[in-house]
Design brief:
About 0% of the residues are buried. This protein has one domain. It has 3 helices and no strands. The protein is mainly α. The longest helix has 22 residues. About 70% of the residues lie in helices and about 0% in strands.
Length: about 60
């Protein structure tokens, strides 16, 4: 959950801008998009496996 304390003499626009940044950094927006539609467990596993393959390929190319 994101909490934002409005500062003294802060305009609404500045507060909304800070709120958007906090939401973006917390990953809340990404999580909402991910949960928007049901995803089968097999699709979740497939996506995580693809992510791991990309990560290992990148590490191999970098020589780490």
């Amino acid at each position: 959950m994101v909490k934002l304390l409005v500062r003294d003499r802060e305009t609404i626009q500045e507060a909304v801008r800070r709120f958007r940044k906090l939401v973006e950094r917390s990953g809340l927006k990404k999580e909402m998009r991910r949960r928007e539609f049901y995803e089968k467990p097999s699709e979740t596993k497939r996506r995580s496996r693809q992510r791991a393959e990309r990560r290992s390929r990148r590490m191999r190319l970098l020589g780490i």
